[in-house]
Design a protein that fits this description.
Elements: H1 10-20, H2 27-47, E1 62-67, E2 72-77, H3 84-91, H4 98-105, E3 129-137, E4 144-149, E5 155-160, E6 166-173, H5 188-198, E7 206-208, E8 211-212, H6 229-240, E9 246-254, E10 260-267, E11 283-287, E12 290-296, E13 308-312, H7 329-352, H8 354-373, H9 380-383, E14 389-391, E15 396-397, H10 399-404, E16 413-417, H11 421-426, H12 430-435, E17 440-443, H13 448-455, E18 457-458, E19 461-465, H14 476-488, H15 490-500, E20 506-509, E21 518-522, H16 528-535, E22 547-551, H17 556-567, H18 569-586, H19 594-604
């Protein structure tokens, strides 16, 4: 029988379809099954008004048969089938979508999901097959036809025998090569895995060896009243390989301009490797139950990259291979809505399940903070209500809780930055604020100072570090006393600065200290903690704080320095170096020479 040529620029175009459009060869099974589902959809729709169809929804199915010895894979359906004419139109003309034309004819097209849009999915079979045969009999016809092709050389069509309406697609798999083991597509484990991955939510049973492989009705499509916690627990752990429970479930059922359903989970614990570049964010994306992407990054912002879940929408515009999205308005609308839903769910958990939220925040709070400072603080105001900080009260506090309980006389939101809560609580600069009854927020993450810097204030109350040059904690009398003492001991302070050389920008008497002898502060916008953070970044240009040694003028250590300055300059220099070493230890900064500091302490003793 002479072969007919394809009608769309023949060999070159088909070669492009087979080898360039699809990224993964395994996609072929999804496309063939989706076509079978479309064919059933058409006949199912006809059965609503045509009693001669003789089938109800429960009778429709897709069957898969495997014959490893013959390298044969067959996908059969009892759908609408094709006439000779539709075979010519749909399989003889590349990019001719019968599903698309059928849907266009329906008065209520939105009531039926036809997956096929482009008419190229069928040709993906040639990525794995040396020959494809389509045996089909159309509804209302007594004659069956067989379409056969080995690729771009063309195809044949002949009359054939088929007892029932529907279509069988038989693929003879290619010989294995170094790049692909095609014979695996005839193995039950491989086919089962692909059905579960891509076609689990096709609405008709997909049967192999008498076993239904697919779930058909996904959890997110079921009424909320029909989904138990056990269902959600199993879905979450199976779907996302989670070893721990989730903290919260978010369900979305959106209608209107953009229609979609979503089932999202807030994890309770960060998965292995979460804070590494290898971790992939994103939600699983489905179009009418067919899996399109495993990790659609565009659906969740970076600040919520911990969210796991699925989104299913018939409204999305897919590219020709259905492997990725065209970046269009629908996608942006869905992403924006999902972001709002996640934020609202986290705020609800913060209000109604505080213990669980705090556990969640220990795992993912850092992600929210990074989300606040990225993109020049674009989301800072949106996310600020999700923040909780360790507090001098011994608990986590939100910024609102802090402001609502501030004493009337308190002007600022005070914070202390250190590597841990314990170190922050031990900072000498914190003593004065605590003595006034002011709460201090303990900032223990590297990003925290950038967060408060971007926010600037909360409810009109500005943030102030207990290490600021002017903390507004001391009285005017105390300020005047320190200024007077500074003038009286200026020569001692100048001597101390000269002794330390380039290690410090200045040495001054402190307004901040109460019972401790010394502390370190900075005279520029780079704080001591920022300097330590920048030092950990590889290949980072050196960024330094302008270190200031602050000394408590009322402490006996300063009196000892003044006495030594008048009588023994060498001893005075030793005291200065010891005081600076103490300040570095308190600030958790490295000591240039620990042994030298130890010798100086021994010497002064």
């Amino acid at each position: 029988m002479p072969k007919k040529q394809f009608k769309a620029e023949s060999k070159k175009l088909l070669d492009l379809m087979i080898n360039s459009i699809y990224t993964h060869k395994e996609i072929f099974l999804r496309e063939i099954i989706s076509n079978a589902s479309d064919a059933i959809d058409k006949l199912c729709y006809m059965s609503l008004t045509d009693e001669n169809v003789g089938l109800s929804r429960a009778n429709f199915k897709i069957e898969i048969a495997l014959d490893p010895s013959q390298r044969k894979l067959t996908v059969s359906d009892n759908g609408v089938g094709m006439t000779r004419e539709t075979l010519e139109q749909n399989l003889g003309t590349i990019a001719k979508s019968g599903s698309g034309e059928f849907k266009a004819t329906l008065e209520n097209a939105e009531d039926i999901d036809i997956i096929g849009q482009f008419g190229v999915g069928f040709y993906s079979a040639f990525m794995v097959s040396s020959n494809v045969t389509v045996l089909t009999r159309a509804y209302g016809s007594d004659t069956a036809y067989e379409w056969s092709s080995n690729g771009a050389d063309g195809y044949t069509i002949k009359e054939a025998e088929k007892e029932t309406v529907g279509t069988c697609v038989t693929m003879i798999l290619k010989e294995d090569d170094d790049n692909e083991k095609y014979s695996d597509f005839c193995e039950k484990w491989r086919v089962t895995g692909l059905v579960k991955k891509y076609s689990d939510y096709i609405r008709y049973p997909i049967i192999l060896d008498g076993e239904t492989l697919n779930s058909m009705v996904p959890l997110w499509q079921r009424p909320k009243s029909e989904v138990t916690k056990e269902d959600l627990d199993k879905f979450y752990k199976d779907k996302f390989a989670a070893s721990s429970d989730y903290a919260k479930v978010i369900r979305v059922d959106a209608e209107g301009t953009v229609e979609y359903k979503a089932l999202l989970f807030v994890p309770q614990k960060a998965p292995m490797g979460y804070y590494t570049t290898e971790y992939k964010k994103g939600l699983e994306l489905y179009s009418s139950g067919v899996m399109i992407m495993t990790d659609c990054e565009d659906l969740v912002p970076e600040c919520f990259r911990f969210i796991r879940g699925v989104v299913d929408s018939p409204s999305l515009s897919l590219n020709i291979s259905r492997e990725m999205l065209q970046h269009d308005k629908q996608l942006r609308v869905i992403a924006a809505n999902i972001e709002k839903k996640i934020k609202a769910a986290l705020e609800e958990m913060l209000r109604e399940d505080r213990v669980r939220y705090e556990e969640f925040f220990t795992q993912f709070g850092l992600q929210i903070k990074y989300g606040m400072v990225s993109d020049y603080g674009m989301r800072a105001q949106e996310l600020k209500d999700l923040l909780v900080f360790h507090s001098s009260r011994g608990s986590y506090e939100t910024l609102k809780e802090y402001v609502d309980t501030m004493p009337e006389a308190q002007e600022y939101i005070y914070y202390a930055r250190a590597a841990s809560v314990e170190r922050a609580a031990d900072l000498p600069q914190a003593e004065m604020a605590r003595d006034k009854g002011y709460e201090i927020l303990y900032l223990t993450d590297d990003v925290d100072e950038f967060v408060v810097s971007i926010l600037g204030d909360f409810d009109g109350k500005k943030f102030k570090s207990i290490n600021d040059k002017d903390t507004a904690l001391e009285s005017e009398d105390k300020k005047e006393e320190v200024e007077k003492q500074t003038q009286e001991t200026q020569d001692v302070l100048t001597f101390a600065k000269e002794t330390l050389g380039s290690a410090v920008t200045d040495v001054r008497l402190s307004h901040k200290l109460k019972s401790h002898p010394v502390c370190l502060s900075s005279d520029n916008d780079v704080t001591i903690e920022m300097e330590k953070y920048f030092a950990t970044i590889p290949n980072q240009t050196e960024i330094k704080a302008q270190r200031v040694l602050e000394i408590n003028g009322s402490h006996k250590a300063f009196r000892a320095l003044c006495d030594a300055f008048d009588s023994d300059k060498e001893r005075a220099a030793t005291i200065v170096k010891i005081l600076y070493g103490e300040a570095c230890l308190i600030a958790d900064l490295p000591i240039d020479s620990p042994s030298e500091l130890a010798n100086l302490i021994s010497e002064i003793m």
